[in-house]
Design a protein that fits this description.
This protein has helices at residues 14-37, 46-54, 71-84, 146-165, 169-195, 215-218, 237-245, and strands at residues 42-44, 65-70, 89-92, 105-109, 112-116, 131-142, 199-204, 222-226, 229-233, 261-266. It has 269 residues and is of the alpha+beta class. It folds into two domains: 14-139 and 213-266, Beta Polymerase, domain 2, CATH 3.30.460; 146-195, no CATH class. Strands 1, 2, 3, 4, 6 and 7 form a six-stranded mixed sheet that branches. The protein starts with 13 loop residues before the first helix and ends with a strand.
Amino acid sequence: MEHSDLDFICPYGNEKLKRVQHELLELFKEIDALFKKNNIRYFLIYGTLLGAVRHQGFIPWDDDLDIAVFREDYDRAIGILRKSLSDKYIVHDKLTDTVYWCDFSKIRYRNSTAKNEIWLNDNKYKYKGICLDIYRCWETPCSKFRKKQNRSKEHAKFALMNLSASKNLGAKTKALFKCITPLFFYFYYYFLDTISKKEMKYICDPADFSVPLKKEHLLPLREGFFEGVPVLLPADAEAILADRYADFMKIPPKEQRLPHYSTVEFYDE
């Protein structure tokens, strides 16, 4: 996991970031072994897929890990993890945390605490350790407007979360105005999606943010590598990444090379 050719500064320290990536990789290896033993199909998605294709592992400044499981296998997969994972990990979902709001599960490393600067509501959870996200993936009818609808809802949700996190009237007023435009476009594209011709595509959690995946881009899954570990990737990972990130092989400017967390602490340090 050496990335000396890329310049970035992690707010909680580059050495600690290496520890985060190491712990997540060890967690992933355990999940991968359990899924393969029990014939659970999964694949890398989002930033982890981007890292696998562009860096053959973690994006150098990334501090989480994303995989997806097909919805028909999802409950069984989480049940296996709940029963068989090492004690140093916990399945974080609505069964283990009454304020958890996601429809998918996270697997957290118990011996850590992290502050999330992107999903601010995560900081209210019972468990706050570094995590691996396990998203659901399912087939559903989508029009050509679904991508724009989801992107508008994504922007609106970020604005609404900032609104709820604002602590004074001025900040709340500013955040409220930032909600109006994306909400308008969300309902506009929702209407167009409702009346337009649809085709079957795959959606992954978080469904509001997902770019629909064409079946021929997703299946059949193919073998690849992540930090030297054999993994499963979408059939045409490059097409999926291009649809979501456009010029995905281009390294972002230094000011955008940021992790999700602002602080991370390990209890054994």
